[in-house]
Design a protein that fits this description.
Helices cover 85% and strands 0% of the residues. The chain has helices spanning 3-21, 24-40, 44-58. The longest helix is centred in the first third of the chain and has 19 residues, at 3-21.
């Protein structure tokens, strides 16, 4: 299994545990908030590079 697949499986496991222990809206805020905060913490050049890579993966 690749490194990214292991991270994805771990994230799903943590998400399921959070859904059991916390109300659904808290879990939703964590799932949406953490990536949003991480994106906002990037420099403008890093954001540009991330958008460029995302476009290439979409085939644009």
């Amino acid at each position: 299994m690749s490194k990214n697949a292991k991270i994805a499986v771990g994230g799903v496991g943590v998400g399921l545990i959070l859904l059991i222990w916390l109300p659904w809206w808290v879990s939703f805020l964590i799932v949406v908030g953490v990536p949003a905060i991480a994106y906002l913490a990037l420099d403008s050049s890093q954001r540009r590079r991330l958008r460029r890579v995302a476009r290439k993966e979409l085939g644009r």
